[in-house]
Amino acid sequence: MSAADRPTIQQQIDEVQCCFLSMRSAVEAWQRAPEQHRSVETGACRSKLAPLQAAVRTLEWVRDNAEHLRQARAGASEQQPEAAE
User: Which of 5, 10, 21, 42 could cross-link with 30 by S-S, CB 3.0 to 4.6 Å?
Assistant: First the structure.
């Protein structure tokens, strides 16, 4: 996969947020009318909300600190000794 084919950090954030909103909507629908929307899937959705929020926060942190991470990686690469030929 080339770099052009990979999604950007922002695209990944948007996709995870979309999943979060969809699942949260399902949970809220169940809470408004549990007799109409009750399913095992609703419980599964509810259990995924916190991990999805954490994923968004992590991706946002990576996006916001990308330049610092690049600099740290470049610095670490420069400090490693050359491999024996």
Answer: 42
- Residue 52 contacts by C-beta under 8 Å, 6 or more apart in sequence? 16, 19, 20, 23
Residue tagged 């995870």 (tokens): 16
Q: Give CA–CA dist 39/22, Å, rounded.
A: 15
Distance CA 3, CA 80 (A): 25
| Residue carrying structure tokens 């995924």 | 48
Q: Hey, how many other C-beta atoms are within 10 angstroms of the C-beta on 6?
A: 10
Q: pLDDT tens digits for 13-46?
A: 999 999 999 989 888 888 777 777 566 566 778 8
Sequence-separated contacts (24+) of 36-44 with Cβ below 8 Å: none
